[in-house]
């Protein structure tokens, strides 16, 4: 057994993991409510995994209603050391055909009305998000994808739209003009909460369609997306199997990006002014605060 404990957030199409040993479930209620579903814990190739379906069991939660704060808090409270987020997405580039994977390294967040921080009135913090993912885990994920024979690209910018509707053609063309790579509905504010919880976060965007910008291409159709999604899900499971084989021989050290201690320099409210009740909630994800 290694000292890695990976939180796996499964997006559309990825609702379970195959091959887990010592499987059990865990119900966690966080100070921000309950997560999308009970956590499934187990080991794969000697690496501990904690699986959480982002949209709930049976895909019952739309993107705008996903409890992003409770999900990340639950994974932190379960002892996860790192998070790998897996999401279906649309492609904004010709070369990223359905079935292609992109290991995201940047975001443009155009979601609306979602809670965005564990912090607020009573204790204010500003975490850096210039580089929103963990460089080490992103590289490991990319290498595992290549080894699994998946068409995969290291680096890309993910446009987070609110949804649940897909884009208009004008919107899709606008996002392409900005030089963006893929489009989806769920990685923000998820990545922001992961950073505030001091959890290294890596994201795999699995292309299901060309959004609606491509000339001669039909507009996004759920049936066609689901057909591609099934193949993508099998690829994602192969990638995770290869990744755990890789990690099983390596002891974990802190992220080279300093993510595990990012809050030490992010809280601007002095100790004497912090609301004790608010702090009691935060200790679930930031025990050093106490």
Give a short synopsis of this structure.
This protein is of the alpha/beta class and 290 residues long. Helix content is 25%, strand content 21%.
Distance between the termini: 30 Å
Give the proportion of residues in helices: 10-25%
Q: Rg, please?
A: 18 Å
Summed over residues and divided by their number, the pLDDT gives a mean of 94
Number of helices: 6
| Total DSSP E strands | 11
According to CATH, the homologous superfamily is Nucleoside phosphorylase domain
CATH class label: Alpha Beta
Write the layout of secondary structure elements.
Blueprint (H helix, E strand, L loop, with lengths): L4 E6 L10 E6 L12 E6 L2 E7 L14 H10 L4 E10 L9 E4 L1 E4 L25 H13 L4 E3 L2 E4 L8 H9 L4 E3 L5 H7 L4 E9 L12 H26 L28 H7 L8
Parallel strand pairs: 1-4, 1-5, 5-11, 6-8, 7-9, 9-10
Antiparallel strand pairs: 2-3, 3-4, 5-10, 6-11
Helix pairs in contact: 2-5
């Amino acid at each position: 057994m290694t000292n890695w404990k990976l939180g796996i957030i499964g997006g559309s199409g990825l609702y379970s993991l195959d091959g887990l040993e010592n499987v059990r479930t865990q119900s966690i209620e966080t100070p921000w409510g309950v997560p999308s579903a009970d956590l499934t814990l187990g080991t794969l190739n000697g690496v501990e995994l904690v699986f959480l379906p982002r949209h709930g069991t049976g895909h019952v939660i739309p993107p705008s209603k996903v409890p992003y704060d409770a999900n990340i808090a639950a994974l932190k409270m379960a002892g996860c050391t790192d998070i790998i987020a897996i999401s279906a997405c649309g492609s904004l580039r010709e070369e990223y055909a359905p079935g292609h994977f992109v290991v995201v390294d940047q975001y443009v967040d155009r979601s609306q009305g979602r809670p965005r921080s564990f912090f607020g009135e009573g204790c204010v913090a500003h975490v850096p998000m210039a580089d929103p993912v963990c460089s080490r885990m992103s590289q490991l994920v990319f290498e595992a994808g290549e080894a699994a024979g998946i068409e995969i690209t290291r680096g890309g910018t993910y446009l987070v739209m609110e949804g649940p509707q897909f884009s208009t053609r004008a919107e899709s063309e606008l996002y392409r003009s900005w030089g963006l790579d893929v489009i989806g509905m769920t990685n923000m504010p998820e990545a922001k909460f992961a950073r505030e919880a001091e959890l290294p976060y890596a994201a795999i965007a699995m292309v299901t369609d060309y959004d609606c910008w491509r000339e001669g291409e039909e507009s996004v159709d759920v049936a066609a997306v689901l057909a591609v999604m099934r193949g993508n899900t099998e690829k994602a499971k192969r990638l995770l199997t290869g990744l755990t084989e890789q990690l099983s021989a390596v002891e974990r050290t802190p992220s080279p990006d300093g993510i595990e201690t990012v809050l030490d320099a992010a809280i601007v409210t002095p100790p004497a002014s912090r609301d004790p009740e608010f702090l009691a909630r935060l200790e679930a994800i930031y025990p050093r605060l106490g």
